[in-house]
Amino acid sequence: MNPQTPSEFDPAKVWLQRLKLDLFRNYRSVDLTLDEAHVVLTGENGAGKTNLLEAVSLLTPGRGLRRSSYADMSISDGNGTWAISAVIHGPAGETRLGTGLQALVPAAPPQRRTRINGEATRRSEELLDLIRVLWLTPAMDGLFAGPASDRRRFVDRMVLAIDPEHGRRVSDFERAMRGRNRLLEEGSADPAWLDGVEAQMAGLGTAIAAARQELMGLLTGLIESRRRADSAFPQAEVAMEGFPEDEVGVSAAVDLEDVYLGRLRDGRRRDAAAGRTLAGPHRSEFHVIHSDKQTPAARCSTGEQKALLIGLTLSHARLVAEVAGQIPVLLLDEVAAHLDARRRAALFAELNDLGCQAWMTGTDPDPFEPLGAAAQRVHVVSGVAEPMGSMG
To answer: Contact, 297 vs 308, CB < 8 A?
Structure first.
């Protein structure tokens, strides 16, 4: 990850020109043609606004903003398959992206496939060369006070947006750890098997910790560089705590791998009794502090936590633009509903300054009126999405 200064760097805007869904969630078929302005989705609760955001989120690796099973994304009375296609405009000009759940073999479970300009991709990470998508949803409002696993997942999504290999490292680490846990449970496994699995975990775990700590440093530097006393969104101080993160930068990577490997070997009996691995990046904690108040985010008011999360998301979006060379698409579900007029105006100003295409949802179009010609409205009614023109 090698960020450049703004004077050296002009990140490319990436935006969706077209979005087409077939048999996805409550959409039997929808085909939207868009311009590069923000997209405001309005409609009653349950109409399908968030489903459109979820579809866009699936243009990147992973299970999207809801983290649902792929089977659950198919329309209820369909054949179990679904498809999403998009035309995006970015550094490579116009590019066609497609993903979906396909029945490749009769009677076999459908499998997800991804295509770029009609060609099947070998790895979903190839999508990140063309588009980065970030999101903020109401389900994330309890991030700071909820389970530590949610915060680790949040951090790993942030890392993935600037380091395409990170997701693969995390999934490989978790797979190796499950294998080690099974071997320890069996009790009679060949020690050589454990040695091999633990060596893999030590290498992957050290790389995961290093990537997380690099993100913390880059994000802290960006937040500090944009610090303003009159900001509508409070400044956050961020840090990862735990092993191996605490040792990153203290020990060389190869030495840290050896230390981690030693901990795994020495902890076999303890971990077997616990039924799980007790040392590693899967137990680390993400800390966020309200900078001005020096108060942990979990102890801030609900409104302050929401503002901290929005500010952190906007800072991360700027970091992605600097590091990846492309401005991410932002998905902001019900983001304006609980903001006062001052913070809504500040949010819209930040989005315009960032130069992104932001997709926002709301039941009422009125809060979005200040966006004017900078946004296009799409009205959603029971799985039908109808473009309504500019907000201005």
So the answer is: yes
Contact 127, 114 (CB under 8 A): yes
pTM across the whole model: 0.94
CATH top-level class of 145-299: mainly alpha
- The values of phi and psi at residue 174, to 5°, are -65, -35
Extract the tokens encoding 169: 């490292």
Domain boundaries, the chain: 1-144+321-392, 145-299
At 60-88, the pLDDT tens digits run 999 999 999 999 999 998 888 999 999 99
Helix axes 191-225, 302-324, angle to 10 degrees: 100
Provide the H-helix boundaries in the chain: 49-57, 148-160, 166-186, 191-225, 253-266, 268-274, 302-324, 341-354
Model pLDDT for residues 242-251, shown as the tens digit of each residue = 999 999 999 8
Closest CA to 319 of 76, 134, 185: 134
Residue 47, CA atoms < 13 Å, CB-side half-sphere: 17
| Tokens representing residue 298 in the block | 């979990």
The whole-angstrom separation of Cα 152 and Cα 148 is 6
Architecture of domain 1-144+321-392: 3-Layer(aba) Sandwich (3.40)
